[in-house]
Design goal:
membrane, Butyryl-CoA Dehydrogenase, subunit A, domain 3, structural molecule activity, Claudin16, transmembrane helix, cell junction, elongated, 188 residues, alpha+beta, 4 helices
Length: 188
């Protein structure tokens, strides 16, 4: 039972870490939601903003200024939290691989392997909370920005919603959290 639970937690952690990495690297955290007469599809991400022409499929992207440039708080905080979550999830995966029962590393000391799995679960939990905070921070900021424009009757011609990268970050963080619970609470 313990080995099956470890492998399940590892598979979930691996998939969720990939989701977190993809969410951090991709550029569709916000998408334009006005589809009435739009001829282009706009995406904003943590690193750049892209516009895709719907008629011919040509995509152009504008990189944001230097990482050290003055950026909005939501981008800086989300970048920081997501990169930290990625690093912690990667560290947890490396620790978990060494702690799995099916790996021959430290086979003679099962107590140490169990502690490695538990430690990986704790690290994964911390990373998942940071990733969830980063994704939710960005999503809430997008919602508040939209609500402020609506409440002041300001129409800029572009209406943004949460993009698939934001949802991917939330899904990856939630998966890492479930894997963390499996490793810290259910393994014993």
């Amino acid at each position: 039972m313990g080995a099956a639970l470890q492998v399940t937690a590892f598979g979930l952690a691996l998939l969720s870490t990939l989701f977190l990495l993809l969410a951090t690297c991709t550029d569709c955290w916000m998408v334009n939601a006005d589809d009435s007469l739009e001829v282009s599809h706009k995406c904003r991400g943590l690193w750049r903003e892209c516009v895709t022409n719907m008629q011919d499929g040509v995509r152009t992207c504008d990189q944001y200024d230097s990482i050290l440039a003055d950026h909005p708080v939501k981008i800086v905080v989300t970048r920081t939290l997501m990169i930290t979550a990625d690093l912690l999830a990667g560290l947890a995966l490396a620790t978990l691989v060494l702690g799995l029962d099916c790996i021959t590393f430290l086979k003679e000391d099962p107590c140490v392997k169990l502690r490695m799995c538990y430690g990986a679960g704790v690290i994964l939990g911390i990373g998942s909370i940071l990733g969830l905070i980063g994704s939710m921070w960005y999503a809430v900021d997008v919602y508040v920005e939209r609500a402020m424009l609506v409440s002041h009757n300001i129409f800029l011609g572009v209406h943004y919603d949460f993009g698939w990268s934001c949802w991917l970050g939330m899904a990856g963080s939630t998966g890492c959290f479930v894997a963390s619970v499996l490793l810290t609470c259910c393994l014993y």
